[in-house]
Automatic annotation (TrEMBL):
This is ABC transporter domain-containing protein. The lineage of its organism: Bacteria, Pseudomonadati, Pseudomonadota, Gammaproteobacteria, Lysobacterales. It comes from Arenimonas malthae CC-JY-1. One of its GO terms (molecular function) is ATP hydrolysis activity. Residues 7-230 form the ABC transporter domain. Keywords: ATP-binding, Nucleotide-binding, Transport.
Length: 231
């Protein structure tokens, strides 16, 4: 059904003690689109992702996935999530991690294809613990995409990567988009949102300040002032 968004927040709020991490956020993701959630540290991006992916529940308002409750594990199985960190076993080889995760899905991507997309073909036999931080992030990415999810969430995937690695990763996300995958990514970088997104949701202090195409957002004077601070 094209009228139901793949994922949505409606007036969603989340507090941690006295701190309001998210204050009445509306957000929608539709089939096949790439949405960038752009903002500085503490803007609420990871919290918004946490609600959409069912890792946490809202204090007020609603989160939905495929029109259902993201906190339901059966609903969550339909998405891919690349977190900023994931607890994997140091002694288990890269290919074994990917093979195990792939086995949970009804129509997984062939192992070699997943490894190639994630840039892990040469590292397949290495134990996870022997990889660099950047390489471990590739494994987390591989686990997020191995099930061919129609909707993929990636949380600040290119932080700390050099320009070349960042560009290479963008190319992979474009390939997934071209396959029809809807993607939600959080980022600090306007350049990244511009390179990938159909729509940008600009956040600050737990609120949505603006929502527009990358070009539209750049054209807004007010947006520009805020963007200057998101670096
Ligand atoms: P970053 O770019 O640093 O990941 P962000 O935009 O993703 O920032 P969030 O991680 O969503 O922001 O955090 C929003 C606010 O909520 C921040 O002030 C953060 O310190 C606070 N916060 C997030 N998670 C928790 C938690 N589990 N307990 C307490 N405070 C939290």
């Amino acid at each position: 059904n094209r009228d139901i968004p793949l994922a949505a927040l409606r007036g969603a709020s989340k507090r941690y003690g006295a701190l309001t991490a998210l204050a009445g956020v509306d957000l929608e993701v539709r089939a096949g689109e790439v949405v960038a959630v752009l903002g500085a540290n503490g803007a609420g991006k990871t919290t918004a992702l946490g609600l959409l992916t069912g890792r946490i529940g809202p204090d007020a308002g609603q989160a939905s996935l495929f029109g259902a409750d993201p906190r339901d594990p059966a609903v969550r199985r339909g998405i891919g999530v690349m977190l900023q960190s994931a607890g994997l076993h140091d002694t288990v080889r890269v290919a074994e991690h990917v093979r195990l995760f792939s086995s949970y899905y009804p129509a997984p991507r062939p192992l070699d294809e997943t490894l190639a997309l994630a840039g892990l073909s040469e590292l397949a036999r290495r134990p996870y613990g022997a990889l660099s931080g950047g390489q471990q992030r590739r494994v987390q990415f591989a686990l997020a995409i191995c099930g061919r999810p129609p909707l993929l969430f990636v949380d600040e995937p290119t932080v700390g990567l050099d320009v070349e690695a960042r560009r290479a990763f963008w190319q992979v996300l474009r390939q997934l988009r071209d396959e029809g995958t809807a993607i939600v990514l959080t980022t600090h970088y306007l350049e990244e949102a511009d390179a990938l997104a159909d729509r940008v949701v600009l956040m600050a202090s737990g609120r949505v300040l603006a929502e527009d195409t990358p070009a539209g957002l750049k054209a807004r004077a007010a947006g520009r002032r805020v963007l200057a601070r998101t670096g």
